[in-house]
Design a protein that fits this description.
With 245 residues, the protein is an alpha/beta fold. It contains six helices and eleven strands. The protein has a single domain, classed as Purple Acid Phosphatase, chain A, domain 2, CATH 3.60.21. The strands form two sheets. A six-stranded mixed sheet has the order 5-6-7-8-10-9. Strands 4-3-2-1-11 form a five-stranded mixed sheet, covered by helices on one side. Strand 1, helix 1 and strand 2 form a beta-alpha-beta unit. The longest helix has 23 residues. It is globular and about 50 Å long.
Length: 245
């Protein structure tokens, strides 16, 4: 637990709770609860977006975690077409799910969205051509706007952002180049810089790297469990990050 003016975050992503996952991360959740003040889950809570998967996760969180839990949904949580039900199940376990909303804990502001793809920098996909391409780009724009609106509501000096998709290219390096456009979007970087957030976390990129920075120097961490296990095999699969009030 943090002392003085700090708030200690435990951050992880891509728990991918499947049909037989009951208890699989219970010890990890309990350790994160012991070491931090807040637990952040950056999407892909479930494997196929099934209610029974969400219920298994909810039960493990309910029995293991004694600190506030904030989360966003990931692409896997949409797979079965019932993301609202997944959200409802985990919220009943006390999880605060952010989808364009914001939340404040002890003077620290939190904002979150799932995010979306579209690519990065000069090669970012633009709304030109077929209607389906324009719809794809519009979804990325919508997610960026939701994040911007959530950040605009916060009045805290320090702000933390939760995403599933990456806002920068750096943290997905190691993924096949062919799927970069589906790993995140530079459109998500814009509100991070605009509102000068302290830190942003995401998941999704299982083969990515741990840390990068936006063009304005804001730290961005890839908290995907496969990344944490690969790069820090001697530590539990969550990040610890101290936020100064």
């Amino acid at each position: 637990m943090s002392e003085g003016n700090g708030l200690r975050l435990a951050v992880m992503s891509d728990t991918h709770y499947g049909r037989h996952a009951t208890g699989s991360l219970r010890e990890v959740f309990a350790k994160a609860s012991d070491e931090a003040d807040v637990l952040l889950l950056c999407g892909d809570l479930t494997d196929y977006g099934l209610v029974e998967e969400a219920e298994m996760l909810a039960e493990d969180l309910r029995t293991s975690v004694k600190i506030p839990v904030l989360a966003v949904l990931g692409n896997h949580d949409f797979e079965s077409g019932t993301p609202k039900l997944v959200r409802e199940v985990v919220e009943k376990a006390g999880v605060i799910v952010l989808d364009g909303e914001c939340h404040e804990i002890d003077g620290i502001g939190f904002a979150g969205v799932s995010g979306f793809g579209g690519g990065f920098g000069a090669t970012m996909l633009n709304a030109w051509g077929e209607p389906l391409i324009k719809q794809f780009v519009q979804e990325a724009v919508n997610e960026s706007l939701k994040l911007e609106q959530a950040l605009a509501k916060l009045r805290t000096e320090r702000t933390v952002v939760l995403l599933h998709y990456s806002p920068i290219r750096q943290t997905i390096e190691g993924e096949p180049l062919e799927i970069y456009p589906f790993m995140g979007s530079s459109r998500l970087e814009v509100p991070l810089n605009q509102y000068k957030v302290q830190v942003a976390f995401h998941g999704h990129a299982h083969r990515g790297v741990l840390e990068g920075r936006t063009s304005e120097g804001i730290p961005v961490f890839n908290a995907s469990i496969p990344v944490l296990k690969r790069l820090r095999p001697d530590k539990p699969p969550f990040l610890i990050y101290d936020v100064t009030r």
